[in-house]
Fold these 4 entries.
Entry 1:
Amino acid sequence: MDAARGGEVRAWRSAVPDRGSRLVGAGFWLLFAGGLVLIFLPLVLTVYLSFFDEKLIIFPPRAYTTQWYSEVIPHFASPLLTTLEVAAIAVPGSLLLGVPAGLALVRSDFRGKGAIATLLLAPLTVPLIAVGLAVYLFAVSVEEVTGAPLAGSFYVLVAGHLLVTTPWVVRLVVASLVGYDRSAEEAAASLGARPLTVFRRVTLPAMRQGLIAALLFSFIATFGELEMTLFLISPGMTTLPIALLGYLKYHIDPLIAATTTLQMVLIGSILAFIDRFVIRLGQLVR
Amino acid sequence: MARGARGEQGSARLAGALLGPATVLVLLVLVAPLALLFRYSLDKFDPSQLIIPAVTAENYISFVGSRFYLDILLRTIEVAAVSTALCVVFGAPVAYRLARTTSRYKSAMVLALMLPLFMGATARTVGWMILLSHGGVVNLTLRTLAGHSRFDLMYTPTAVIIGILSFNLPYMVLMLQAVFERIDISLEEAASGLGATPLRAFARVVGPLALPGLSIATILCFILAMNAYATPVLLGGPRFHMMAPQVYVEFASNNNWPLAASVAFVLMATTIALAVLANRLIPDRYRAP
């Protein structure tokens, strides 16, 4: 009886917030708001600045304009082209390498599988600045021995980007196959389908979502790669993130804001597409 | 029996064929180059002759013995530690609200957090440069409000910490959101039903359950911060040194490849050592399996 009353009193006390818990509540919302500001304020400002009719950042601007958007592609045409050329090889290439590997990691069982999985995902964890330096020095050494002109070549740049994109493909293919019920495959096999037919008609359609996600994520990974690429470019062969970095060292103006905004729109639409039609992005973080 | 064995052999061969190309790629473009990088870090360097083949720990010894390089390492650790701590402080409330919301726009919110993650550090820094640069938003606001004309955050360690914090925050929020979501809300309801204040319920029930996930998220953010490149270069300016940009400076400006290789290895070794140490400091029962 006493205990029950005690509980009642305590429940009543917690229902009416005292000063201390109000303070805690206020602190919570303050940090919450601060967190959102830290994440989104720079992005919002970038979009805002991209419409300024000024050559520099001057608040408030004389007028607003969309002219900077028409100057983005002419100004960054060459690095953009290189970035897209690299992506055009690295994305399909990483699918060719990563999809079979992901399949084997899920479907087969052998000794050392854990080690292979760790190895294949390692490029996601090794600092890319070290990888870039290492790949460049390796290319120089191979060139010294074989005479093949590798250092600063397009092939080495693409090989480096393949290294960055392939683990994404492996990870997403594994994620799309884990927990997949194999009974449909077994049914197809028992009805007389050959293994390749089973793969083509049953397994592949089941992996469709994972494959599209892998394609798009590997594109995003190669499109934004900066640290490793720093070491693999050569005069006349620069990628977009590096051109942006070089530009930003000396200017901060509406043109760069417009470029960043376009990038935001491109990546935002890719992510929205994945989220809507392929795989709930929330599931990937888990 | 014999067929079974042959079948197993066949499937092992198939697995080998499927895994082979990707494994060769990683061995050829990651493992072999890193091994060679380590070999380079043991060479000597002379400004006129460049690389002199040798097997010496000279680069590492001079790194540890030099005030200049040691300061860069310590500054990197300091910036990474402070930005990661702030990341937890600001990230946890956002993650908690996101995990507990029943809004139909929740997936749009997750999407909004993923967008900055995939934008790349250079693009993300543009906004902070607008805010912090001389004549930028913060500078202008302070000048109007307080009359301070010489308050520049640009090219200060604070600017770099803010930039890295902002860059890593979405990672922290998304990882912690997944952690909080796995904690059954009925546990909190039980705690408050028994009279616990929200803070007490959090400290005694949710906190301990979230600790393993929180520790992983914290360590990952710390690793990212240690390796930051674009943010320190752009917000710290030419006279602010952190480890990852220093690797590039030694390579490109000083042409000292052996030292660049050593700086890269010191960075990797320190990061791994601190991550392992942090994991050891967590009490066993809270450690992630």
Note: The CA atoms of residues 73 and 285 of chain A lie 34 Å apart.
Entry 2:
Amino acid sequence: MAAIGPEFEAMQAAIEARARQRGLDVPEIRYELVDYRQLNEIAAFGGFPVRYPHWRFGMEYDRLVKGHQYGLQKIYELVINTDPVVAYLLSQNSRLDQKLVMAHVCGHADFFRNNAWFAHTDGNMIDVMASHGARVRTISDRYGIDAVETFIDRIHSIDNLVDSGAMARARGRPGNAPPLDRESTPRDILGHLAQQGDLSNWQRELLGLLRDEAYYFLPQMLTKIMNEGWASFWHSRLMTDDLLHDAEVVDYADAHSGAMGGDEGPKNPYKLGIELFRWIAEGHADEGDGRTAMEVAFDARRTHNDVTFVDRYLDEPFCRAHGLGVSSEECAKARHATVASLANAGQPIIERVSDVADDELELVHVWSGSELQLDQAEECLRHVQALWGGAVRLFTRLDGRDALLSIVARDGEVAREVGERSDAA
Amino acid sequence: MTDERSNIRRIERDRSRFSEIVRGHIKRDLKKYVTGSELIGRKGKQLVSIPVPRIELPRFRHGENGEGQGQGDGDADGRGQGGEAPGAGQAGEHAGQHLLEVELSLEEMARILGDELALPNVQPRGRASVDSLNRRFSSMHRQGPHSLRHMRRTMKEALKRQIASDTYNPDDPVIVPVVDDMRFRSWKDTWRPDHAAMIMYMMDVSGSMGREQKEIVRLVSFWIDTWLRSQYHSLETRYIVHDAVAKEVDQDTFYRLRESGGTKISSAYSLAADIIEQQFPASEWNIYIFHFSDGDNWSGRDTERCVSLLRERLLGGANLFCYGQVKSAYGSGQFKKDLDAALEHDELVITEEIPDRDGILPAIKSFLGKGV
């Protein structure tokens, strides 16, 4: 890792000055220059230089390095939501790439600082991750790598059982994770297991650490389209309005369209996000309340997450203009499909039922249009049971019928009861 | 930069842990790989590339059933903090999600095989009569690629030069290496004595040996080869095919050739004996002889001739003679019975029946289980 040097520092200062003139709230950004191996390492660690030891990071790294070597993919930059914002630049990037990336990072940094869902994230997360790493290493030394790894595997399998709605409960302390000294909310199943699961001390501690990390990443999963859209919207504005030299235009257009190209619609978050923000900035979404189109865009980036953003702004005119549909029905369908795919960051919603006996855990899969993948759900249920200790039940649907999956004891079989065909949708 | 590179980075530990897990999977499914043909086709010079199912943790995720649209790109790992970034080359990001190519050296593959089958290491006979090349990075050159630059030596040379030419100032200890100061790691060849070994493969290609039978022979031979290569640094292989007459062929032909006609096994044994006597004196070579057929021979007379060829010309110098009888629709399987009856007490002779692909591992184990 290296500092970026005076030339890029001057470039950074110029870009940030422009961004601020245009109204972006750019916090302090620290750039580090890294080679592709380091960048891939950091990417494999989920954006951080140090994480706890685990084979899945190694697997991700393996995939990224091979992808890079075979020329299938290339990561240009990584941004971490911390205070100051840290961004890693690939040292092989051309001068133009770096300029583009810095402009892009300004958008991300502004988004991290201003979007409501990021209000509670811990600005110190690099250190927190590093200390989690040190803690896991200590625990592994003491209780054995295999035991710790198996336990972490379990948690990874179910770390989407968190409650995005409960993040505001974390107010007043660092981190997004709702505090564990109060009763956890129904969807915060990780929290409930951390509080009442049948766990040894080190297991409980580890579950707590990994839960904190899961909550740290949650806002990013909820705002992928917006975050990428906003950053792309701004790099495109800043570059084309101010920053590009004549000689750079063609290369810029190539790089930009490379990222925006491909699927229309929800598949490419860059594309859908940037088009929605452009739509708003062009004045198509004026509310008639006296705000300028740009003010509407800035307010949208503050208050929405992907679901509400798409639901609000992917309207019929947008839909027609971007070829997602022609008739009202088609447009409504396109919007609903996109919203459904984004709901709960694309994860199934699973809730705990509260009025059951203390030693039992009853879960309900809240129906949102599609069934769970059965084999994996059963496997996950085993993991939940192993952390919980007592009997665990999950109400869901199989082949259009109500179904109950239950597991009574550790390593036991998952029993399946299927009820009458239900017509509820 | 240099400091960070010289340390093993954390991710490399995670990566090697990951490959350990993958190797564990390969080991667990060894039978699948040994009895499947895809591996042999993937043999590179030193590495085999093995497709293993992508290792995936189970998750609560949306499945296929339901009227909804399923899920978007959930990516619950929270990867890519808003930043896999502008630029081309996004295509193919998700290619090959479900298969993972793992590259293993043949030696490693042999070790896994050896571990699983509990194969003893080979105890070579005779003296170490050939020299095998051993290349180590143990010397220093003035030219070389920068990736092999020896920083400390280079700086030391520069310091020496600067002190000698009086351009070194202890109060401002700046050392600037010039081209002449550069030192690079380089290799040194050493030759060390080694045991020589050869494998003689013989196969019946008469009409009764079908595709599947040959495939089995091919698989058994591949794994025998892999194992013995991990035991000897230099290994020669020779291939003989026979129906009513025998001829020596190259490896490729050995596996592909389809002849028809009768079967005279003695023709192969006598050719093998000729080759070995002329080119591979037993005093210098460890000799492994493998013969595969479906057990049909031309006549009882010819089988008798085979037995006497074995006794008189082949077994004397060989470490091992193995006969694998691959079951075919037409084979009588008589040859193995005759061999067993005639050579029952000879420890060097191992005969095995290989009824189908499931018989491959047991056959390999029995062939190589003696460690000779």
Note: Chain B has a mean pLDDT of 80.
Entry 3:
Amino acid sequence: MRFRLIATAALAAALGVGTALAAGTKDEREAIMKKIGGAMGQLVAITKDEKPYDAAVVKTALTTIAESVKAFPDQFPPGSEKNSPAASPKIWENMDDFKAKADKLHADAEGLLAQLPADKAGVGAAVKALGADCGACHQAYRLKVD
Amino acid sequence: MAGKRTRILLSLAGIAVVGAAALFYLTLPAPLPEAHWAGLGEPDMANGERVFWAGGCVSCHAAPGSEGDAKKVLAGGLALKSPFGTFHVPNISPDPKAGIGGWTLAQFGNAMTRGVGPGGEHLYPSFPYNSYARMTPKDVNDLFGFLKTLPASANVAPPHELPFPFNQRIALGGWKLLFFNDGPRAPLSASGDQVKRGQYLVEGLGHCGECHTPRNPLGGFQSGRWLAGAPNPEGQGRIPDITPGSKSIGQWSEADIVTYLETGFTPEFDSVGGSMVEVQQNMARLPAEDREAIAAYLKAIPAL
């Protein structure tokens, strides 16, 4: 009896650890957002004349954004509602819309990769379009916790 | 003996009556006289539009969920939740019945700067007249002119849902007596026209303090806490401290603040979130000099 109890507890603990190790921690979410932010920063540096236009840099940045955001909604599985205070509970209430907003950024970044911005002005337009995607999702689903 | 007691009681009653009368008088709606709003001439539409964006009218008065040009239809209807109950934002489109098309400039000006409605009633401070009180008569006139050029809507918003005693408008006179203020909000460490313009935009039109300054239980600003950050009135999360003392925003340069207001990106290329998204979109429509003035002002207020 006691053994079964201990075994159950151990199993429960193992499952608990398993859940914690699965996708959806605060660190994982923030790491993806920081990757996208860093890529945006490289694009903005070109628009501000801090860096010269470089097609390779633009391509890498857009690829980073497209790939990173693709995996982002996976970081919000059921049960991970409390993992980061900046994630609004509305994410889980409107998961389809949340995914659609991530897909939009993915599709826009892919579209730009298919037709790579060719100069500083093109990068500026890209930053504006992608930035609007960031804003649209943050407006609905990101809480300020400062 | 009995006569003396009666006299004392009568005096006390007299004092109470005088006190009540004084309180009644002090808490009456106090519109500015018609003359204050006279002789302003034809409105300057370009300035009216600038005031319109700086004031953030669309953020509350546009129909919820509208995008693009539809935002300029100020049909109202947004539900604003607060600790005092739910406010339903009114229609301020030029419709003569549902909106403000039938209002005079004096009625509009007194609503904006004194919190007095067209029928002489107190307005709830969910409408940020405690900030707009700083507006110049010229800006009020220009804004009124510009609002009349926007599309009309016949939408009628539901009445506010407020429990007793908050549904008693007369009590707002007491609130105003305690908290209404059209003076400077905080001492500034710099002077000059740019900081002054920033002060006008942040303390007045932009009504930044309405969210960024913490409030006491009666809904007045806590003193000495100007723009120091506050709980999010819409629920979870916090509205950040935007003084030079903030761990994050306090470290930003003036140029960082300007870029943020223009593009929505922080210096770390994080992007604006929550209700600040709309505010930032409004700020992006202002001339660059206004965003620079806001940044200069935010560096001149006390660090908290």
Note: Chain B touches chain A through 28 residues (CB under 8 Å).
Entry 4:
Amino acid sequence: MAETEILVPIDSEVDIISARRHGRDLARSAGFSLGDQTVIATAVSEIARNILMYAKRGEVRFRVVNDGDRCGLIVVAADRGPGIADVDLALQEGHSTAGGLGLGLPGARRLMDDFEIVTAVGEGTAITMRKWRGK
Amino acid sequence: MQVPILKQGSYLIASIQSSLTDSDLCQLRDALVGQVGRFRARGVIIDVTPLDVMDSFAVRTLRDLAHMTRLRGSETVIVGIQPEVAFAMVQLGLTLRGISTALDLEEGLAFLDSRTDEAHGRD
């Protein structure tokens, strides 16, 4: 499969729906099960909302990678928002500075196979997460 | 995208038609909490069958809605959560603790009938 990247700008609530739809569509075309498509769409929904809540705007990028006989879907959520001062705290379940359930980041991490945060206060945040396609 | 709310006997039925934004969900919550009083509804059914994602915001809003309508004397039951959506919700760590759910509309109506003892209240 050719490596194409899909970019979805996040700037308003409808973009959250658009991002998860793109994630689901790409997962479907890459052969992910309906269950995994839903898991990916749900994780995307959480991190896209995080962008909107904390950074106001940003983007979510999707691409499919093939690593040997494995196929994975990579989601990168990037913004130039305030950054995360305490990543460990942000990944704690039930912790929210925006009045949410505090399940956004820890929830997305649990849904996906790999999850990585690169962030700097005042500069922004980039979250990379990956789901491998089941055999 | 407004969610149509139907009145059937002493129940209100909200049938979600497609993906909802966060604002749509809040609007649905506010509309139902208001209409429970206007129509003196004893029960509310929210059919989420077309939802292909239930994330933390959706769950929180539906949970709030159920608790608010209960404070207004009306029982809410959520019906139609798809199997893969249930799977993702559990993996995400979301629960609908304290909220009634049923498989589909028919089961939801039967549940409300048993809870409100109003089986005679509808055809």
Note: The first strand of chain B starts at residue 5 and ends at 8.
